[in-house]
Design brief:
By secondary structure, the protein is α/β, with parallel strands linked by helices. It is built from 16 helices and 20 strands. The longest helix is centred in the last third of the chain and has 21 residues. The protein is globular, with a radius of gyration of 24 Å. The structure holds 3-acetylpyridine adenine dinucleotide (N01).
Length: 554
């Protein structure tokens, strides 16, 4: 029988890429760890986003753990960009290989976490009624996990089938012969539309803002390519760690405006054929210099016009509201050419906005279209949504939601002042979605583990950043963003997709390698900007000095 309350060294919230590695790392250190996950199994993003066409836009060989050399030698990816089922199978395999699932309570959602200063522990409450305490809380809650179902009038009135791409059902969804609406043309919409169009009677794409999308150039990996990667994995990982985005690619060494037209065209061609969102990094100045960005935009525009047969339709599919790359460029498989099919049509919501979702379809200002199915590809309350849906209270009952009312405030994207012993993974204030999330999770968790060793070595029970360190990091993050074109876009990076959300560029855009260097320096400087509370320390906290020693393994 499970006792109502149990004491752990650490609670890890989430069984996605970060949460799995967090549990593995902490258990290896002999800590008594409880993982809590709302889904029925591991996988996080790759558990939930089962929509047709879902794939990763980072190459599989890079979007994989590096901590287990045998794993990376034994696992063989079948395609350059893995599909969701393959990614989920991989994460299930990792969980099995390291026996991670036994540490998790599945089908359990964390609803509240409160810091008890006297005990220097967190009390974590769940929707199953189970409450546990833990010295440390690792929030591996994901940055694209809190789905956004916009408040469109009549949203729940539709009596046909209705799905959100981020909460896709496990049973197969049959589109055959159906009239399907897809609302949203971000990555999820753009990836799913061509696949749905293969069997649906008709697909109506409801587009509010067109997006830049670049064909993935996906292909099966040949045995020779796989052998080559496996033989050179350490070097590939080393390059990735030294890069801006956590993958072994570096931009052309000259700016787009420093080269002549022929050279610029050649480099754009090269990165176009490389495929996908990496195009944003062809030249190093593409997202900082408007002239360089215009050159990239014009190149892609011409490509879109080549793919879409109807020039008026092409016009409507070409973005005009943001510099290319300041919203994530979508990595697609046949998106623009799908509009050449007879069974795909576009509703341009800038011209004819949605008035209402009805019982039988969607009514826009030019009339109602009858539908059998609506697919909401409307995205996420990104970066902060999963945390703000939990009632998190730090010292003196201060709410995280309140602390972040004007936008997320962190030290190094890892900790918040007034919330001791709570660490966040791959969230706001870190390179997060701007870099390879798998290496990002390893980078941060390794740092957290070393930080906990440091705390233990100093006989401390709690660690947190100073308010000054948080102020400094927030200023550093916004200065880095201000030096780019990113803040000019109404992107989810800026919180602009959620009405009322503060408009702040949330990730750290200084680069993956630079961020890693900063983490290293802070650690070398004895965790500069952070304060430790000793067991008998000034705040009088904690009689649980032994907590880090561990109570055996769960
Ligand atoms: O979400 P999005 P997503 N009426 O926010 C529209 C990652 N990802 O799930 O732009 C009508 O990008 C909204 O319109 P607008 C990736 O990082 C990766 O597609 O706000 N439309 C937009 O078109 C990605 O960036 C992969 O005007 C409404 C769309 O819905 C991130 O997840 C695959 C609306 C939402 O696009 C999010 O992608 C999938 C309304 N009321 C996702 N509200 C990979 O390839 C919203 N929209 C790895």
């Amino acid at each position: 029988m499970t006792p109502a309350t149990q004491e752990y060294d650490a609670v890890v919230v989430g069984a996605g890429i970060s949460g799995l590695y967090a549990v593995h790392t902490l258990r290896k250190r002999g800590m008594f760890v409880l993982g809590i996950e709302s889904a029925a199994g591991v996988g996080g993003t790759w558990y939930h986003n089962r929509y047709p066409g879902a794939r990763c836009d980072v190459e599989s060989i890079d979007y994989s753990y590096s901590f287990d050399e045998d794993l990376q030698q034994e696992w063989t990816w079948s395609e350059r960009f893995a599909t969701q089922p393959e990614l989920l199978a991989y994460l299930e395999h990792v969980a099995e290989r390291h026996d991670l699932a036994r540490s998790f309570d599945f089908l359990t959602r964390v609803i509240a976490a409160e810091y008890d200063e006297a005990a220097a522990t967190w009390t974590v409450r769940t929707d199953t009624g189970r409450t546990v305490t833990a010295r440390f809380c690792i929030m591996a809650t994901g940055v694209l996990s809190a789905t956004n179902r916009p408040e469109i009038p009549g949203r729940d009135a539709f009596t046909g089938e209705s799905y959100h791409t981020g909460e896709w059902p496990h049973e197969p969804v049959d589109f055959t012969g159906k009239r399907v609406a897809v609302i949203g043309t971000g990555s999820s919409g753009i990836q799913s539309i061509p696949v749905i169009a293969e069997t649906a009677a008709h697909v109506v794409v409801y587009q509010r803002s067109p997006n830049y999308s670049i064909p993935a150039g996906n292909r099966p990996l040949t045995p020779e390519q796989i052998a080559e990667v496996k033989a050179t994995y350490p070097e590939r990982r080393r390059k990735a760690r030294l890069s801006g985005g956590g993958t072994p690619f570096t931009p052309y060494p000259k700016g787009a405006m420093e080269v002549d037209d022929d050279e610029r065209q050649r480099i754009f061609d090269e990165w176009w054929h490389r495929g996908g969102y990496l195009f944003a990094k062809a030249f190093p100045d593409q997202t900082v210099n408007m002239a360089a960005n215009d050159a990239a935009r014009e190149y892609v525009e011409a490509r879109i016009r080549q793919m879409v047969e109807d020039p008026d339709l092409a016009d409507q599919l070409i973005p005009t509201d943001h510099p290319i790359g300041t919203k994530r460029i979508v990595t697609d498989s046949g998106y623009f050419t799908t509009f050449n099919r007879d069974n795909v049509s576009l509703v341009n919501l800038r011209r004819t906005p949605i008035e209402e979702i009805t019982e039988t379809g969607i009514r826009t200002t030019d009339g109602e279209r009858e539908l059998d199915m609506i697919v909401f590809a409307t995205g996420f309350d990104a970066m902060t949504g999963a945390l703000s849906r939990i009632d998190i209270r730090g010292r003196d009952g201060r709410e995280l939601r309140e602390a972040w009312a004007a936008g997320p405030r962190t030290h190094l994207g890892l900790m918040v002042d007034g919330f001791p012993n709570m660490f966040m993974m791959v969230g706001p204030g870190s390179p997060s979605v701007l870099a390879n999330m798998v290496l990002g999770a390893e980078q941060q968790m390794d740092w957290i583990a070393a930080c906990l060793d440091h705390l233990r070595g100093r006989g401390g029970v709690a660690i947190e950043p100073t308010p000054e360190a948080v102020d400094e990091w927030v200023a550093e993050c916004s200065a880095k963003a201000a030096g780019t074109l990113f803040p000019s876009a109404n992107s989810w990076y800026m919180g602009a997709n959620i009405p009322g959300k503060p408009r702040v560029f949330m990730p750290y855009i200084g680069g993956f390698a630079a961020y890693g260097q900063i983490l290293d320096e802070v650690a070398r400087d004895g965790y500069r900007g952070m304060v430790i509370t000793a067991a008998d320390g000034p705040t009088g906290s904690g009689s649980k000095q032994d907590a880090l020693v561990g109570h055996g393994e769960r």
